[in-house]
Amino acid sequence: MLPAKVLQFGTIQIPNAVLLAPMEDVTNLPFRLICKAMGADIVYTEFASSDGLVRNAAKTLQKIRIEERERPVGIQIFGGDPETMRQAARIAEQFEPDFIDINCGCWVKNVVRRNAGAALLRDIPRMVHLVKTVIDSVQLPVTVKTRLGWDRHSIRIVEVAQQLEEIGVAALAIHCRTRDMGHQGTPLWEWIDRIKEKVSMPVILNGGITSWQTAAEAFWNTQCDAIMIGKAAIGNPFIFREVKHYLQTGQHPTPPLLEERIAVCLQHLELTLEFYGTERGIRIFRKYYSGYFKGLPRSAQLRQQLVTAASYEEVRMLLEHYLEQFHQHSTPLELATSSTG
Ligand SMILES: Cc1cc2nc3c(=O)[nH]c(=O)nc-3n(C[C@H](O)[C@H](O)[C@H](O)COP(=O)(O)O)c2cc1C
User: Fold this and answer.
1) Where residue 333 falls among pLDDT bands split at 50, 70, 90?
2) What pLDDT score was predicted for residue 330?
3) Angstrom distance (rounded) from CA 73 to CA 10
4) Which domains does the chain show, CATH number per domain?
């Protein structure tokens, strides 16, 4: 075993830190609590629009509601106008997160059009000014999450990292792709070492971690200070436990049994319905099912049934039926067509 790497900024000091990536419509409070319970060391809210915060929009404010038991937690904000970002950061600070994170990497058109997210990579002085404005307006540590660059021909991340360190950014998370790569292509982890040669602030590696094996590779084959997992955690919060177990013990983790997958899925669903109410919650929850039951016999058919269920009870019955079938046959021959049927 290699010695633990320690992620340190603000009041945070965590060995072998594994972070849950901010994800819009995914890393809401219920999901963060589930990931935390499974071993995620640090969680982030989904990004909150600075315009929405300043307008006091209820949906945006709901995104940054946090709870004591999920700490350390960062609130991520985005926007293209420094003055609005200053006000938004002050609002976010009142929610008392452990740090405020600025999104400088989102590639989505709607965000880029507003000169926010990855658009900031096209104009580095503007990015630096915007981040500095936020740093100067709050007491909390400010971190940045970004990509390598606007496109593969304009990667200036080393220079960006140096400038961000100079103005007092507490830590930098890098999705190791450029904006034009979207979510495609092999992440270019080699840039992490190039950055670490020039800065001493913590650098968090993100992009392409899909298992405890790839997590260990990212951790030990680069000079990153911590790693961050996004898509692979959707409906698979167990990944945090597996990664932490391997990093701490060097032993291969055992995957969760179906019984546990079902129990955690139901607990997650319950929290989601409590947070959003049944109608909205049941809709929001649909994105998690495929992760929870990935790789199991007839999982596509099961998912198809789960996404049409309208209540917690209906979901619970479908899952109980699936479990029964699973134990009766090595491949379940027929799944329930409806909980009431
Ligand atoms: C559904 C979805 C929503 C996302 N929303 C955000 C966001 O709100 N803020 C952000 O910084 N990145 C966001 N991302 C990017 C992730 O944080 C992460 O950088 C990216 O998915 C690469 O990591 P991964 O390969 O582990 O998924 C989002 C990604 C996905 C798939």
Assistant:
1) very low
2) 62
3) 12
4) 6-249 (3.20.20.70), 258-328 (1.10.1200.80)
From CA 286, how far away is CA 162, in angstroms rounded? 41
Q: Where are the alpha helices (DSSP H) in the chain?
A: 29-37, 50-54, 58-63, 82-94, 109-112, 124-137, 157-166, 190-196, 212-221, 238-249, 258-276, 278-285, 289-293, 299-306, 312-328
Q: How far is CA 213 from CA 39, 218, 256, in A?
A: 16, 9, 16
CA of 330 to the centre of ligand 1 (A): 36
- Residues 6 or more apart from 300 whose CB is under 8 A from it? none
- Pocket of ligand 1 contains residue 230 by CB under 6 Å: yes
| Mean local confidence (pLDDT), 280-296 | 97
Residue 200's pLDDT is what? Answer: 98
- In ligand 1, the atom with minimum distance to the C-alpha of 21 is 17
Q: Whole-prediction pTM value? A: 0.95
**Of 145, 132, 52, which Cα lies nearest the Cα of 91?**
52
**Predicted local confidence at residue 331, as pLDDT:** 52
- What letter represents residue 166's amino acid? E
CB 78 within 8 A of CB 47: yes
Query: Separation of 40 CA from ligand 1 center, angstroms?
Result: 16
* DSSP assigned state of 112: H
Distances (CA, A) of 292 to 20, 156, 269, 303: 17, 38, 12, 9
pLDDT at 3: 79
Cis peptide leading into residue 72 (ω within 30°): yes
Q: How does strand 43-44 pair with strand 48-49?
A: unpaired
Take atom 29 of ligand 1 and give the residue whose Cα is closest: 23
Residue count of the chain = 341
- 3-state SS class at 101: strand
Ligand 1 contacts CB of residue 104 (under 6 A): no
From its phi and psi, is residue 90 left (phi > 0), alpha (psi between -120 and 50) or beta?
Answer: alpha
**106 has catalytic annotation:** yes
pLDDT at residue 6 above 60? yes
End-to-end CA distance of the chain: 53
